[in-house]
Design a protein that fits this description.
Length: about 375
């Protein structure tokens, strides 16, 4: 009996020692090296053909073809060297990375184009002067920057309390009620409203109140708040639902009223996510052009008063610079690119502020 067990063990050891412990793998340089080689080959051939035919050199088409060929080549090499399962795994990984590159490439191209076009006018004059009396070179976008900040901040002051209180009612008070389903339905409808419709609504509202031809920054804030409210409601609602029910129940067990539980337990816990949602809503509306063009108008002069007269904003400044070019057209185009770059920097700054506030709020909750 003992001899039989020892013999079986020796047989298993022999079988295990004969089996390969490590399967064949492609060298680490093969994927990147093959991609670079195929891209250089196809793009180079295409460039030579374009130069020989006196055509502009195009690289986008050959680059896409090179990537497709590279995917097939990597799969074939992996199938021959590594086997069917690893080849399929490499194919899926390659497709995922290719999709990521395709998604990021337009964003990188957009940022690069705006930076190249706008960096020339990002000087002190651009940030310290308005366009009053300027018909050619010079001038700046100070009036548009101030208008954008005032209109957007006032829109946030309108929409954040309304959106946050609506989300609190939906999650904490209105569970299972018909009015809650109606509110959720209308919030979803508002999410898909085109921005031009919000602008026309605000224009009609102030037309009835102030009469025809009334344009001011406050009307622009109202139009933007219509676009912000559904985003704030939805983001805040999701964050409030993520708060564990155990925290609420523990607070109720201690005899704490519901309103105090919401203000002292639920809101502080959900604050990082709520802050991020609010900043995303602001970033979503800060670049809107159509509603502001209708209700806020445009002006070349400084206007600090939201309630009196037209107020220039950065999106309208960019639009007006492109569409109403003067005698020195290049000066207007340069100002438009600089305004677009400034708008992107404002959005980036808002997102950085949102991250900082979220991290600070998480630290305080812990």
């Amino acid at each position: 009996m003992l001899d039989t067990a020892v013999a079986s063990k020796e047989k298993i050891v022999q079988l295990d020692s004969s089996a390969p412990l490590v399967t064949a793998r492609l060298p680490q340089w093969v994927p990147a090296g093959s991609l670079i080689g195929i891209v250089i080959l196809l793009v180079g051939i295409s460039a030579l053909i374009d130069i020989a035919g006196n055509r502009p050199v195009s690289w986008l088409g050959p680059l896409l073809v090179a990537v497709l060929i590279w995917i097939v080549v990597i799969y074939i090499l992996a199938r021959v060297v590594e086997g069917k399962r690893r080849a399929f795994d490499r194919l899926m990984s390659t497709l995922v990375w290719s999709a990521f590159v395709v998604a990021v490439a337009p964003l990188v191209s957009l940022l690069w184009t705006v930076i190249v076009g706008g960096i020339a006018r990002m000087d002190a004059l651009f940030f310290t002067n308005s366009m009053r009396g300027v018909v050619g070179q010079g001038g700046g976008a100070l009036h548009a920057i101030i208008g954008t900040v005032e209109v957007t901040l006032f829109a946030a002051l309108i929409s954040v309390p309304i959106g946050l209180l609506t989300a609190i009612y939906i999650v904490e008070y209105g569970s299972g009620k018909k009015i809650t389903r109606a509110i959720t339905f209308f919030v979803d409808v508002m999410t898909g409203i085109p921005s031009i419709v919000a602008g026309l609504f605000a224009y009609s509202l102030f037309l009835m109140i102030l009469g025809p031809g009334s344009q001011n920054g406050f009307a622009g804030s109202v139009a933007l708040s219509i676009l912000m409210i559904p985003v704030v409601v939805r983001s805040s609602e999701e964050m409030l639902r993520l708060v564990p029910a155990d925290l609420r129940e523990a607070s109720y067990a201690l005899g704490v009223p519901r309103w105090r539980t919401i203000t002292k337990v639920v809101l502080p816990t959900a604050l990082p996510g709520i802050t991020t949602g609010i900043m995303l809503a602001i970033s979503r509306v800060v670049g809107e052009t159509a509603p502001l063009l209708i209700v806020s108008g445009f002006t070349h002069s400084m206007n600090y008063n939201l309630f009196d007269g037209p107020m220039m904003t950065l999106p309208v400044f960019v639009y007006n610079s492109f569409m109403s070019q003067g005698a020195d057209a290049q000066a207007y185009v340069d100002r438009a690119w600089a305004g677009a770059l400034t708008l992107i920097l404002i959005v980036v700054a808002l997102n950085l502020v949102a991250r900082f506030i979220s991290r600070l709020a998480r630290r305080n909750v812990k």
